[in-house]
Design a protein that fits this description.
single chain; alpha+beta; Phosphorylase Kinase, domain 1; Transferase(Phosphotransferase), domain 1; 2 domains; 6-stranded mixed β-sheet; two-stranded antiparallel sheet; 12 strands; globular
Amino acid sequence: LSELDLNGSQIPTLGHSINHLEIQERFNVIKEIGRGKYGKVLLVTHRFKGTPMALKVMPKASTKLQGFLREYCISLHLSCHPCIVGLFGIAFQSKEHYCFAQELVIGRDLFAVIQPKVGIPEPSVKRCALQVASALEFIHSHGLVHRDIKPENILLLDSHCQQVKLADFGLAQKRGTMIRFITGTLPYMAPELCGMALLDGQKEATAPPLSVEPSLDTWAFGVVIFCILTGYFPWDRCMDSDDFYQEFADWWRMEQRSYAEQDIPPLWKKFTPEAMEMFGKLLALDANNRFSVGEVRGYVEMDWMKKIYPRKSLKATVDSLAAIDTNINRK
């Protein structure tokens, strides 16, 4: 699998050898723990070993075999990283489903702990950002792009983000894959990707095909940091018709970008000048000028929100973040 062509040329061969069995033959189903467009995730235990697992179950009616195998192979390929959900190397098909077994992460996803219009504490945000950045750097070093970075795909092993894991590689693609169009937009999508969206009544995109690049993940990563710090989205979509996006774009395009409060867009006035400098790099409108996700490391020792920490508390936070970064690298 380490040498598998993740673009798909070897996947059909692998598809011929995937085992046929019904879920109940090998697993005891405890309960459903997740559901999405892809299908569902079940909490199961292995009938013979008793091992608890998270079983991802995708209906054959809405899932192509090649897509299932690509997601499984990419997930397995990357699962050795400490900040990416692990796999057991178990994949099979039942009469109606394709399934593979993942590490069971006991806890909630990041979206579930965000307090609306408040967010989560800044030290927790920084711990989370360091770990997600490490996971993304690992993914990008393997020539892949996640393409679905959002709080729902960041799983927490504890309530303070001491350990988080990135999940769901259903949209992951090899760097350089060409996108011809997308249907619908999300707040996490970069402006160049939103430009590929089919508008009402359109049957094909007017923009030229877009190459999948790590810069798409960098943009989504920047939006996620904004969301978990504030408890709200910075915009609905990165298009000229969105006033909130346009305000940010106008600020970013300033010839001499100002960090003075009167020049900062309204939704961004909570942030320190250092945080705005970081966002200006992660959320560069021009993908070619966008920095990598690792840029966040240069800012974790600075305040991101306009508030005053007691000196002792700030030092404790910095020491904690340094220990997490060291621990990730050691693993």
